[in-house]
Amino acid sequence: MNVIDVVDVTKTYRKYARRKQFATLKSAILSGTLVGDLKPDETFNALKGVSFSVPQGCTFGIVGRNGSGKSTALKLVAGITKPTTGSVTVQGRISALIELGAGFHPEISGRENVFINGIMLGLSKREITRRFDEIVEFAELENFIDAPVKTYSSGMYMRLGFAVAIHVDPDVLLIDEVLAVGDEAFTHKCLDKFAEFRRRGKTVLLVTHSLNLVERFCDEALWLNDGRMRATGDPRRVVSAYITDVEKQEERHMAAADARSAAALSEAAIASEAVATPKPGGGNVPEGEGGPPDMFQATEGRWGSREGEITDVQLVGEDGEPAHVFACGERVEIRMTLRAARALSDFVVGIGIFNLEGVCAFGTNTNIEELKGDRLQGEGTVSFFVDGLDLVAGTYKLDVALHKLDGYPYDYHRLLYGFRVKSRTQDAGIYRPRHRWGFGGGVSFKERIGS
Amino acid sequence: MIKNLTALLKYRQLIQSMVARELKARYRGSVLGFFWSFINPLLLLLIYTFVFSIVLPSRAPDLEPYALFMFCGILPWTWFASSLLESSNVLIAGGNLIKKVLFPAEVLPIVSVVANMVHFFLGLPILAIFLIYYQHPPGFLDLLWFPVVVAVQLVFTLGLALIVSSLTVHFRDFKDILSNLVTFWFFATPIIYPMQMAVDRGGKLFLDLNPMTHLMVSYQEILFYPGDFGHWKWLLALGVASVGLFFLGYFMFDRLRDTFAEEV
What pTM was computed for the model? Predict the structure, then answer.
């Protein structure tokens, strides 16, 4: 039996043009557009032809980027808004964890708020009295329950809201990204509570960005993108399709950022050439425009005499295609194109990888690694092969440089290229060595649900 | 609509506890707390007594004591006016409930009307004390009509509150128009002047068309004027009209209900 049935639902919101925003009764009457103004002239479809159904006892996850219509879908199921077209039917008592403690009054005590909030959520006074101690214990607020809610910290507020909502004992529980309400311990308690819900055959609809949670917890998942259904079914399949799409999106963003900095550079290059012409080949002038070539001063830019130039930098992933997003541990090639009009023999090629805080994760050059520049003339390529990009997930910046042995810069690119490392685990630090755990004797672990 | 109206009965407990919360929260943090509900009307009455017995002594002998006469009208008027002004804001202020919780929105204006009614009731002992003090006791038979007047005013106010609250969601500046409208309405109703004065100057038709006139005159006849309550026909007619207004208001509220979650 399906507890939730959503059939071909479209939800249209009215977009407020500036004129409409300030529309008033008086102006509506005076201009005679009272009826017209109440009709939307510019609309926005938050959901387009979405259908899904959730059988009894199923835990159903909805994933998608911000603004993809997840919360709208949840509100429709909760009955808070009505679909523009299509139909939504839900059987049984619903409790929606959309905003915790939405009905709390700041001036009165936690105790009174529990009662009023409970009644708002559909409990009777007697039911609340029976569950009161359990609610307070769950919220871990035994010592503060008689204090006015305005004195609560935001964590306490959320915990109390969560505790009331979860003790409504609904048949259908709707959760909108509210698991981040407390510390680790509280999150685990919430997850235990959900597990209990599942055991008791209740239906759960979960909207979250925690893909881990969807994979481990849900029986079925739906991926919404831009108000449309992109995929539905087995959570692992849906989540991996979603991740692939997000990576593609990020790839495009970082490529665009690189293109922008490249464009800015070529303009700067034209300007600096104009300045540099009076001193052609002035070997004793270290081209001060870009600032001092200090490796650890984290400013972006490009400087150098340009006797030898780095004309192009590409990061190439395992599939041989230039990319900006890589999996942790992936094989990566940093491919640089060099050019020199006159032959150079005193040159060193270096790279540096920095994280966003400016910490150098790795830096080396051909000189350190005991290679001596021999000849650079015309155009050529230099590749730096990384066998495993063992970095923790995050965004990194790349330095590449072509300089003399004594440090005199030909062409220095400072933090101009960004790339991102993706990982399903959230470890700390910069370096992520290949590793595994081993246990023996009386030590054993089992898999944990959740993030 | 009928289904929603019967559902309203189920929300009794919710309305009850929200009214209690409203009253508790209002004076929370003040030293005298709940006593303000008595002190406010008492101070008001003292001010009127001072103004109309010393600053502007009244010339009409049948309206003595003038402050008491005014008080009979101002007390219920305050209930009416604050209910309307509060309910004009109540859906926007409670936007969080409407947007984030499945919540019967009509409860909000109803709660503000009922909470103000409780304040009105709390002012009645002060009125009673002064009626006795001035030896101006109302007739016992007249007093039987008192609950009827209150009931009519309750239904009438509820109807208007529903209309006002749903309109302000769509037209925010209705709130500002309303406060001026209420002030005008106050002076267009025989509260600080007797009905007779307006009748003498040919304003009877105008006042008769004003529903609040009949409520205020009823209060005055029951509580202040000696003699029988002669205004009951008007009162009952208004009662019937009020029920109509309530259904109209509820109908309008119900029609606009689905737009609230998006507009507030």
Answer: 0.72
